[in-house]
Amino acid sequence: MNIPRVSLTSLAHGGGCGCKLAPSVLRQLISSQPSGHPFSQLLVGTETSDDAAVWSLDDRTCIIATTDFFMPMVDDPFDFGRIAATNAISDIYAMGGSPIMALAILGMPVDKLPAETVRMILDGGRAVCGEAGIPVAGGHSIDCPEPVYGLAVIGTCRPENLRRNADAKAGDAIILTKPLGVGVYSAAIKKGMLPGERYAEMVSTMTKLNRVGAKLGTDKSVHAMTDVTGFGLLGHALEMAQGADLSLKIDWKNLPFLTDAADLARKGFVTGASKRNWASYGEHVLLPTSFLDWERDLLTDPQTSGGLLIACAPDNANTLATFIAAEGYPATRIVGSFANGSAGVSIER
Annotated catalytic, 17? Predict the structure, then answer.
């Protein structure tokens, strides 16, 4: 069957991690789900809003399991595959682990996409898995109304290297490793308003593996980690603050952004997910009185394959940030700190 080429994004009602259910909806859906007890070997389940499930295999090995998939936010099929795979593998690194294998998750409208396009998506995912040093060992595919791709990923870590998102301590500094603004850029793509060099900037950050997380898991000064994805910086920072029952202050002027993110947000290039995110958790966030809507939209902007948020002992924060930057994450910044107080997030100019 000869199927004409069509743009991937035209077949999807949303894209990337902007497809995620709003935090408020997700809370309703899982509120009645058991946390995993009485399974004593389940070290991390649904109780902490963490990035992956963790099972204690023995005294020396934990198994980390995660899955992530979404619809395309870019039209290049190879790039879509790379982005989706990088995003899925990130959950393993965010727990302080290393991936060991992946399974492909594929849903495609087979009557609308040429087989070559689907092959390129799979090739993109396989290329990133190769970079991570793991095989795509199998998978599952279905005929689906909209294109969907992602991975189920298995990883391992030693028990002492496991890092949850809920274990920050009062006084800890918080570090962000990648620039924000991916959702803003994707909104500009839909309107044909993102120049080629900015598209390359976006793809570069989304396909950068968060492999430094595995090294950070061995550092005792690192107390908690998570990655920034569909709930935006504020949503994932709030999960850390509420999990640790601490107040988190974020310094606006220290936040890293993609080159044109602020300018595009100011012009109204924001996603619907950004608005839904704020509606879901805004009551737990304190903004400066002078804060503008577009500035808030940058903080709730859904990130696809975003950076790591790392809570660490304050006396090692500068050294750690310098190390992470040298590992290939030049946008790394110390962006705030935790303190005793009402669990929530505040933004400081």
Answer: yes
